[in-house]
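hiii, so i know i said id send this last week but things got crazy w the move. better late than never?? heres the sequnce for the chain we talked about at the cafe, plus the structure i predicted for it. fair warning i was half asleep when i ran it
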Amino acid sequence: MATAVAAKGLEGIVAANSGICWIDGDAGVLAYRGIDIHELAEKSTFEEITYLLWNGKLPTKAELDEFSKKLADARELPPAILDLIRALPKTATPMEVLRTAVSALSTYDADEKAVDHDSNVRKSFALTAQIPMIVAAFDRIRKGKEVVPADKSLSHAAHFLQQLTGETPSETATKTFDVALILHADHELNASTFAARVIAATLSDVHSAITGAIGALKGPLHGGANEAVMRLLFEIDKKGADPVEYVRELLAAKKKISGFGHRVYHTEDPRATHLRRMSEALGKADGNPKWYEMSRKIELFVKEEKKLNANVDFYSASTYTTLGIDLDLFTPIFAISRISGWAAHVIEQLDDNRLIRPRAEYIGPEYPAKYIAIENR
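okay and structure toks below
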């Protein structure tokens, strides 16, 4: 069988047909179901985006109302899952807890083995509602606080912020977080999405596919870059250093600056455009613009010095910090959003499934290598 040799990391390889997300890296375009991300970020909501990703079209008012109600009605965690979260070490990372809890949730789904379309959609509603609840619950439990009861009257974004803080979020915070969820909802065949599709293609189950996706996202080369960005900003602030000079020294020492460059985009990441604006607006509204101002100075310097553009992670760091979100919750928040895209890809994969089984380019000893008896080795 003839095979084409892939570049390292499968760079440039088309591995699936999909109608969910389109990226033009040269033009800096990201579109969900053909609709530009800029238009969606300005006009849509996370609930509407999730409907679009799962159904291939924008909903009518009645369809969106019904969809949002189903998503809100799914805000329920089995008591045993909360007990599991309480039993895990308080020193565990939120991503470890999320991965474990999502896997455990499969045991409470009586229809877990079903992989037909309707079952996959039902499980997607449940997981999209439950993942933010798991993240918020663990954060409160590890801080010795009570878990906030679910409130089915709030939007998806507002509900997470309330469960996290115990307070009703402001309209500004809710809108900012909602847009952040929209921007992270899907990004074609990134590592976690590809992992989810590979697992789903074996006819395993939805929970296994999403658990695998979370495991892939946990890796610092996929999730976590915005954590590294914020650690850098904290370090610069703590030392009272000039941001540009500090970064200049790091670059001179051949250190990587997180939040710049992208495997796909060769121009500005369109998601960074919105996060930059949100970081600036939040900083002004909060009376604490320093994280945005430091970020902006670094961005302009790196762009001039290294010809690298900021990616989605760079300004999400200062945006989340200004919202009062802890550093180690940044990657779980990625999962809170990306479950919408993961679910869309699992549904799409299983609607027209074929086992994903690529080949490897063999680079070992030349065939036929001879077996040498142990006494002659």
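btw The mean pLDDT is 95. thought thatd interest u
miss u guys!!
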